Amino acid sequence: MRLPWAPAANEKDRREMLRRIGIDDVMELYKDVPRKIVLEKPPGIGFGRQLSEWELRRIVDSMLRKNKVYTDPPPFLGGGVCFHTIPAVVDAIVSRNEFYTAYTPYQPEINQGLLQAFFEYQSLMADLLEMDVANVSMYDWSTAAAEAILAAMRVTKRRKVVVAGNIHPERMEVIKTWLLGKDVNIQLVGFDRETGRVDLEQLENIVDNNTAAVYVEVPNFFGVIEDGVDAIAEVAHKRKALFIVGVDPLSLGIVRPPGSYGADIVVGDAQPLGLGLNYGGPYLGIFATRWDRKLVRQMPGRLIGLTKTIDGKEYGFTMILQTREQHIRREKATSNITSNEALMAVAAAAYMVLLGGSGLRELARSIWLRSHYAAKRLAEFEGVESPLFGGEFFKEFVVKFPKPYHTVHRMLLEKGILGGLPLADKPPLMDDCSALFCVTEAHSMKDIDRLVEAIGEAL
Amino acid sequence: MIPGARSGWRQARWSEPLVYELGSPDNSGFIRPYSDEDAELERVLGATPEEKLGRMLRDRVPEIPGLSEIEVVRHFTRLSQMSYGVDVGPVPLGSCTMKYNPKISEDIARDPRIRYLHPYQDPDTVQGLLEMLYLLERWLAELTGMDRCSLQTPAGAAGELAGALMIRKYFMDRGEDRDEMLIPDSAHGTNPASAAMAGFKVVRIPTSENGTVDMEALDAALSERTAGIMLTNPNTLGIFEDQILEIADKLHSIGALLYYDGANLNGIMGIVRPGDMGFDIIHLNLHKTFGAPHGGGGPGAGVVCARGELVDYLPRPLIAKKGDRYYWDYECEKCIGRIRMFYGNIAPLVKAFIYIAMLGGEGLREAAIQSVINTNYFIALMGGVDGYELPYDPERPRKHELVLSAKPLKQETGVTAEDIAKALLDRGLHAPTIYFPLIVDEALMIEFTESEPRRQIEEYAVALQEIAREARRNPSALKQLPKNTSIGRLDNVYANHPRSVTPTFRVLRRRLQGEQLSL
């Protein structure tokens, strides 16, 4: 058979190559595989035969037609990821095949461009967070949070972790899974039902001298910005625990960066910085620390650094501090992570410099205005609490309806509107009348008015 | 070009400044949507974020330089020209399976009907994508002889962590206190690292003279503390563990489990299945074996699959079908929970679907065979070349990859595996994986995959022969290479020294402002 992606698979080449190898039958190359487990025929997978591109396109098209894409209006669905606009230039850059078909740059001299792009991502992210060191990515926010907690346990040699109860429930699940093999005590802190913020008093009572880390998200699952971050940092640091903060990097256009209030480790997801929704991935896990020997040495993942040529004449970039990593340190490594989301880091770097600091500020501001406008308009309806929580919010907010939300949601879908995330089965709220809405730069006032009108009809 | 009249290869060499030198935070190349509405919004709200955020307001604009669109494009285009992927030339990094990434996959993965889907969209509105993922899951299970796969894990190492945690939870549920994981000394570094993250003690099993697991050492290591073994087969020497059925029997007879590291599946797919070898849990690297690109380090997709009662322990949710409807099955009585948020790295999963759909079962098998022919053809071309040797039973055919040792050349000339790697770069050829596996001195681990044309494989063999000749003639010159790449050989000591290590521009800026920053 002809294999489009295996150029030597023609009969003539094959015959000559086998002759050079010194065999007649290719199966002689598999003579050491126990006979009884060698498959008699190829597995019956795929569509039963080879497909041409055109045939494949038609099959895929017939499948994708069953998906419903919401762009008019864009989704109002929240839950940790939201619909953001992606400048075409970002796609153009990550479509450069020198980037996307490259491997991890083990050989720096031939991949300087890729390494510089990674270094720039690390630098731009560090400046956005006001942290000193950022790695070139974790899988997503949730695994970054889990790895941050593991790092904190190594740094402090302690076995108790205090987690804010208002974080994203799926992140909570991921943290629990990753800590399954460790002897660790995870304690949750409740939140204030009025503001949606962490209960500071409870936090202070739970954090003790055995606490490795305090983990808080800003904004939290409800979109609410914790304003007690200075106090939380103080509580953690008084007990010599590390303060880990999870952030939406786009919010930092207007919200105080975690580096300014004493965060030791910052995690988050850079999906808002130019990445597609992609039905949940790939995204871009952020991991950053302060300049601290222990923190940096216990960091998981790949780090790129500045260096010189051996003749000292030029500056260049290379992978650094690799003795932390699995390929050298094996079971003593800081993490097993190898493949990460590097290409997404290039996308985020391109996005950040396209906007610049001022552009990021204006964009974050605009998102604040739009989400507040939506919340305010929804509050016009009798019996609707919008936003449910009094704490200042960014981008996402909880709305409580006078009736079960799923009926509202279904009516919105019928009108072609993808509404908020039902919170009936979502800890920490578990309320069937509430939903988490998200409004971004993609939504015009008219889009928001359409949502409000449709909800009015559904109530 | 005129045949025979070749000039040397040179990589692009732009003197490209850092973005910080190109722009300032006041600049922006971005026009935000509906910007004309902002003033109206402020009026309607009667408030601004500056007033409302109070002490949580950022007091200054982020120190992110802004560039116009043309500047962004030029900057990153130049950087891309100083980069090297499979589309530029061969990247025969052993165990990395750097095969060609079909363009149609890139095209389809960017379809808005995939890209614009929100993970929390109602399942009824994403039936097409779910069908694709369902078929992919069924195909991967069939290809590997497993019962079910979880698509959640975003990379091979995450699959390994999931697998190790599954083993841990399985024994916890049975009330068995097994804390040892057996791992051959030829294994990928991720195996011991993953086992340790799951709380296991790693027991190292040596490799025998013929390049496979030392059975006597294995027998000696087995005990009631043994939870399992993590194996890759073919192993990192490219050798098939021909005693795999015996190994499986030994482990299973004492109640322990077998984990399969799927990084080396490429040479055997469609010919023999991990499930039939006796493995209980496996992971697959879809970004290697199934043609999704590596992205300079990711995103990947590291699907984890299981057999029998281990299926209950797979990370949730699993893709499932009832009648004509596809859905996510969250039922999790024994499962380890979630390894990450949502369902997995969808884009590479879609690319793997396309790869398998277009090749079909027979095509996959042919691709595996071609990759093994390429490996052994290269070995034949290197036969009798002074300076290199093929350690561990040179008569045995290798599978997806081979490991050469440059120890003879080093002893003779002082030229190391690293020097050889740099000399290859100097010729426009990406180097192999070097110094791995750890059991081979001066290791050059080479994997061409099925994608390399015959001529390219021959060129690579000739290059290695010429480098050996050059090493004898002028070894010190080799130590100065590469010269034709975008930059010359880099200083690793400076890069990692506590006083000069510089992971961000922020650290550089602080040093330039006079701070003494040491790590």
TrEMBL record, chain B:
Reported EC number(s) for this entry are 1.4.4.2
Which domain of life does the UniProt lineage start with?
Answer: Archaea
Q: Top EC class per UniProt?
A: oxidoreductase
Kindly list the cofactors needed: pyridoxal 5'-phosphate
Does Oxidoreductase show up as a keyword for this record?
yes
**Matching InterPro entries, A to Z?**
GDC-P_C, GDC-P_N, GDC_P, PyrdxlP-dep_Trfase, PyrdxlP-dep_Trfase_major, PyrdxlP-dep_Trfase_small
Q: Provide the Glycine dehydrogenase C-terminal domain boundaries.
A: 370-473
Q: Which reaction does it catalyse?
A: N(6)-[(R)-lipoyl]-L-lysyl-[glycine-cleavage complex H protein] + glycine + H(+) = N(6)-[(R)-S(8)-aminomethyldihydrolipoyl]-L-lysyl-[glycine-cleavage complex H protein] + CO2
Keyword field contains Oxidoreductase = yes
Domain Glycine cleavage system P-protein N-terminal: start-end pairs: 98-320
Which of UniProt's keywords are assigned here? Oxidoreductase, Pyridoxal phosphate
Record's PANTHER family? GLYCINE DEHYDROGENASE (DECARBOXYLATING), MITOCHONDRIAL, GLYCINE DEHYDROGENASE, DECARBOXYLATING
Name of this chain's protein: glycine dehydrogenase (aminomethyl-transferring)
